[in-house]
Amino acid sequence: MEWPLLASLTEDERTQVLGSARRHRYDRGEILVHEGEPSDSLHLVATGRLAVRVSTADGDNATINLLGPGDYFGELSLIDGQQQVRTATIVALEPAETMALSASAFRELRQRHPAADQLLLRLMARRIDELSARLLEATYDTLDRRLHRRLLELSAMYGAQGAVTVPLTQEHLAELVGGTRPSVNAILQRLAADGVIELGRGRVTVLDRDRLEDLLH
Fold this sequence. Notes:
elongated
């Protein structure tokens, strides 16, 4: 597959990066990494969708993000001189594959190809942009707008066009947007009544993306 994050590298350097990475396959429900364990590799998501889950103050787990093909996690592992730990648990929502680049392999790559440093800078810059956008959203956006935006992102992740079924429960959606399940349910019911989505057991089908886009303007 194409890796947009590797675009700053030459074709030879991209070949070197992918040649240094190891392919891992995971079954649905399998845990890729555990929160708190040593972090020693960057994972590029090749296929499948992954849930990013963290521990909450009351001891529960919350899903805070989803990753799909072209996404990544574990970029802090590539920073020299720091012992990193995983900040979240990553779970496969379906059969998935990643390309894992170890910190030691990346160090060797940098010695042969100094331009590989651009890859790390690109990874960090994209992550900072994502976190900044989420902070801005959480601070200034209403719950309705956060849910509308997340449904649009999820529909793009799960399908290119037409009606798209997102296989997530309302509880998972509530965790993703930082709301309570009853509040999220009320918004979903309004969207369903307007024909924007269709609700089912453990799933939401997005019927009208254009309408969701309009609701964000």
